[in-house]
Amino acid sequence: MRITEAQTVSGWGKNFQSISTRAVVSDVAETVEIISMGTANRGLLPVGLHRSYGDSALNSGGTLIDLTELKHIAIDPETATATVGAGVTISELEQAALAHALFPPVVPGTGNVTMGGAIAADIHGKSHHKTGSFSQSVVEMKLLLANGSVETFTPHDPEFWATVGGLGLTGVVIELRIQLRVVQSNSVDVTEHRVPNLSAMIDLLGKSDKDYEHTVAWIDLSGDYRGRGVVSLGNYGSKSVKTSSGSGGLSLPDLAGTNFISPLTVRAFNEVWFRKPLKNGAAALTKYMHPLDGVANWNRIYGASGFLQYQFVIDEGREEIFDQLFAGLRGLKASSFLGVLKKFGAASKAPMSFPRPGWTLTLDYSVTVPGLEIFLQKFDEELVAAGGRVYLIKDSRVSPKLVPAMYPELDQWRTTRNAMDPHHLWQSDQARRLQLC
Ligand SMILES: Cc1cc2nc3c(=O)[nH]c(=O)nc-3n(C[C@H](O)[C@H](O)[C@H](O)COP(=O)(O)OP(=O)(O)OC[C@H]3O[C@@H](n4cnc5c(N)ncnc54)[C@H](O)[C@@H]3O)c2cc1C
Fold first, then answer.
1. Which residue, among 52, 59, 28, has the nearest Cα to 122 in the 3D structure?
2. Are residues 229 and 312 located together in one domain of the fold?
3. Both 259 and 118 in a single domain?
């Protein structure tokens, strides 16, 4: 085990700085040992690769238990299942599974997410309308509890569902058993369509869910905010394609804290993106699933102040909320570099899981946009009034008073969580900010 001096940590959005001690553990015994060492009143928090955008994986004044070295993977081709350590990444699982013509049914937009982080957020991908979220492929979970015991939970147990979407506040995920799906090759057959505005996008995405396993749209949230964009549809392919190894090798240097995102640069980038040749045909599965992983540290383009990612879900039939949002952002001249629209399918059984049926929109903004925070505070209230909610794993700013309305099963989650951790060993900046526990 390596324990570091107190150091500064931030989430992927780099808009929060937090100082904490880090204990890097390499096996279960060391993880148990951390608990027995006792903690100061700021407690412990299990963490992965800090791909959560805000303060979910921060614990100022406390200790982070870094699980990224728990890396074992065993694939059982007979049952098409994988037994994986908490620190295994989605990309590592994909590679191991593909060697047996298998693939994880749910993968997010980046492969650099650990199994622990995937459970704590109950991540979703382009297949949500068909497969549901990550937890729906997990058949067993080994968890280190606050009392130092390691227990195995299945989807029959309330502890399992409290941990799913539980933001690291129920215990340390040590190992998962995941049901994989059979694939014929390492490819996906992709069809892309350019659409002129939001209603055309909604129409096409809605119609395509029946025939396509993967559906998502890039939406241009700059300029006149018409919501033009590119809808991408995919099905697992049968033709193997060549893949390059690694992340593609590009890494953005530290740009001396400069913010390169402005209405002009975003407008120019989005114009090119909108006009780029459409993909049609076989693409490498891993590249299609994780388009941004070709450039490491892309979060540096927002400069030293960082950025926030705002993702929410809203019921079908309440699409008028998009007009309200776009009008406000247009007024602020707030241009989003990465807008994504997707339709969700059925929710999981987890009280704190984010996805539920409806439309989910994701936007990125520099935190330096004048008036943005005040606008988003008002918009959060309208969102809640319309029955929507934000994705907490990406949040760093929502008001605690809105959380019970966004997550109506919060109290049910609290009851199970408090029984699992009566002395509040597991703590995070986000849990304190949102008064979750
Ligand atoms: C480029 C990019 C694209 C993304 N795309 C998607 C997407 O398509 N869909 C989606 O749903 N999300 C997406 N995300 C968000 C990401 O999937 C989540 O934030 C995920 O939780 C990050 O995992 P991590 O290993 O980095 O965990 P961290 O960020 O380190 O931690 C996140 C949470 O998990 C908890 N945690 C970590 N490890 C453990 C453990 N072993 N036991 C218990 N709790 C633990 C932490 O306490 C914390 O609450 C994206 C993020 C980025 C940066």
1. 52
2. yes
3. no
Q: For residue 54, how many C-alpha atoms fall within 13 Å in the half-sphere facing its CB? A: 26
Would residue 148 be called left, alpha or beta, if left means φ above 0 and alpha means ψ between -120 and 50 degrees?
left
pLDDT tens digits for the chain (437 residues)? 899 889 999 999 999 889 999 999 999 999 999 988 766 679 999 999 999 999 999 999 999 999 999 999 999 999 999 999 999 999 999 999 999 999 999 999 999 999 999 999 999 999 999 999 999 999 999 999 999 999 999 999 999 999 999 999 999 999 999 999 999 999 999 999 999 999 999 999 999 999 999 999 999 998 888 899 999 999 999 999 988 755 456 666 666 677 777 777 888 888 888 888 898 999 999 999 998 898 778 888 888 889 999 999 999 999 999 999 999 999 998 888 889 999 999 999 999 999 999 999 999 999 999 999 999 999 999 999 999 999 999 999 999 999 999 999 999 999 999 999 999 999 999 999 999 99
Q: Considering only CA atoms, which residue is closest to atom 48 of ligand 1?
A: 57
Question: What is the domain extent for residue 178?
Answer: 73-183
Q: Are 226 and 128 contained in the same domain?
A: no
Whether 94 and 235 map to the same domain: the answer is: no
Q: Which of 15, 59, 113, 247 to mutate to test the pocket of ligand 1 (most atoms within 8 A of CB)?
A: 113
Per the confidence metrics, is the pTM higher than 0.85?
A: yes
Residue 207 is part of a domain; what is its CATH number?
Answer: 3.40.462
Specify if 51 maps to a domain.
no
Q: Mapping DSSP to helix (H, G, I), strand (E, B) and coil, where does residue 358 land?
A: strand
Q: Which atom of ligand 1 is nearest to the CA of 51?
A: 26
Q: Helices (DSSP H) in 290-371: which residue ranges?
A: 320-332
- CATH number reported for the structural domain that contains residue 99 in this entry: 3.30.465.10
Structurally, the chain folds into a number of domains equal to 2
Residues in the ligand 1 pocket, defined by CB under 6 Å: 12, 45-52, 56-57, 67, 86, 108-110, 113-114, 116-117, 120-121, 123-125, 167-168, 172-173, 292, 393, 428
Residue 57 lies in a domain: no
- Do 284 and 343 fall into the same domain? yes
Q: Is 281 within the bounds of a domain?
A: yes
Atom of ligand 1 nearest to the CA of 340: 8
CB burial readout 45-83, b (16+ within 10 A) else e: bbbbbbbbbbbbbbbbebbbbbbbebeeeebeeeebbbb
First vs last Cα of the chain: how many Å apart?
Answer: 29
Q: Which ligand 1 atom lies nearest to the CA of residue 121?
A: 21
